[in-house]
Amino acid sequence: MPETFQKESALTRFFNRLMGHAVKLGIAPGYMRLLEVRGRKSGMTFSTPVNLLEFQGRRWLVAARGETAWARNARAAGRVVLRRGASSESLTVRELADADKPEIIKAFLDRFASQVQRFFDVPAGSPAGAFRAVASRTPVFELVGDA
Fold this sequence. Notes:
Helix content is 30%, strand content 29%. The protein has a seven-stranded antiparallel sheet with strand order 2-1-5-6-7-4-3, with helices on both faces. The chain is globular. It is built from four helices and seven strands. It is α+β, with helices and mostly antiparallel strands. It has helices spanning 10-25, 69-77, 102-116, 132-135, and strands at 32-38, 45-51, 53-55, 58-62, 79-84, 87-95, 140-144.
């Protein structure tokens, strides 16, 4: 992963808006969700399409670009809403410590390599230990349902 945050290009912003609409309609790939999170400064609700990783019987969100706005907002709010079509789910997020991230980042990159490889210096298929170097720059959240 490059040392600095990679800003979205105009084409990427357009594609994200398009995919956001597809997720709202329920016609995007099954792993995609529309993440909604309250802004930590404005209090407004922001949304962005994300890839939901199901791994080891749990669900995870990985900020492949690094310290994204959604990751900072999720950290501050402690809650997110995931939408797909007509269904929505309000969830608590628990951020992982850097030492716990490599295996999750590896699974995320292995699963979504065609979409996110450009954000990582480590190639898909590498052993989990290779991801220790990027763990501190990659926010990873476990999604926890309400009891």
